[in-house]
Write a structure and sequence with these properties.
alpha+beta, seven-stranded antiparallel β-sheet, five-stranded antiparallel β-sheet, 16% helix
């Protein structure tokens, strides 16, 4: 009995030793955490206490202003994009502004994230960040741009202007500006009359990326134009190519076929 028990024990131990070991899971990719964002912003906004959610008070020349993170891509691997909106007090003559930040994750989870690039002091007059006028646009599998839209309702026709901010040669720059909405609705009465319809101008130009194609690491951009121009229905697409300096589109094309029309 002892010999049989010993052989069984030996066989069991041998099988345990020979059993394949499950390899440990690979380490998780480093991310830019909320703590990283607060730390980096605290350096950029000296003597202030930035917050991920809610307002914080400005300091120095901006002591009468409040700031808040009005756009945040969230904790992600490799990078994180954040926009900070500054609102002056009601009695201040200063204009509202927007600052854009791109943070880079460390090489490992223990490495602190660092500021990669920024764009400070963008005029936000005519921008309501809480209404979604500060947004993102995917420019490629590994690149995302900021889009800021300003509204001008003081003139006729009324307009909205879109500006695309993206990275070129390691710097965040304004690469494209165009009219995204133009309308003179209300300029003539009655709107149903033939003469008024001939004057009617109501166009919307939407900047889009075609994620089904990749060219040199980027998606092709296009401007989708729709609406009414001088009584004619409009539905067309304007391609916007990219080169080493940014995005190029003909000003004449935007005037004649897009939303940069004057009347």
């Amino acid at each position: 009995m002892h010999r049989v028990s010993f052989l069984l024990l030996f066989a069991t131990a041998g099988a345990a030793v020979a059993a394949p070991r499950t390899p440990p899971p690979p380490p998780a990719d480093p991310v830019v955490s909320d703590r990283d964002v607060v730390r980096v912003l605290a350096v950029d906004y000296e003597h202030e206490t930035p917050r991920i959610k809610g307002d914080w008070k400005g300091a120095g020349d901006d002591a009468s202003s409040t700031r808040r993170i009005c756009l945040d891509s969230g904790a992600q691997t490799r990078e994180r994009r954040v926009a900070v909106c500054t609102s002056p007090s009601a009695t201040s003559a200063a204009a509202p502004s927007i600052d854009l930040f791109v943070l880079r994750a460390g090489a490992t989870r223990r490495d602190p994230a660092q500021l990669r690039t920024r764009y400070r002091g963008i005029s936000a007059r005519g921008v309501d960040a809480r209404m979604g006028d500060v947004g993102f646009l995917a420019l490629g599998p590994a690149d995302t741009g900021f889009v800021i839209t300003r509204h001008d309702a003081t003139a006729m026709p009324r307009r909205a202007t879109l500006t695309l901010y993206a990275e070129i040669s390691g710097e965040l720059r304004d690469l494209l500006m165009l009219t995204s909405v133009v309308t003179n609705r209300g300029a003539c009465m009655p709107a149903t009359s033939r003469g008024c319809r001939k004057r009617l101008l109501e166009l919307e130009c939407t900047l889009q990326a075609d994620a089904s194609h990749v060219e040199n690491g980027f998606y092709p951009l296009q401007l989708q134009v729709s609406g009414t121009r001088h009584g004619d229905d409009v539905e067309r697409t304007i391609p916007i190519p990219r080169d080493a300096y940014g995005y190029r589109v003909s000003a004449r094309d935007l005037r004649n076929r897009g939303c940069d029309v004057s009347d």
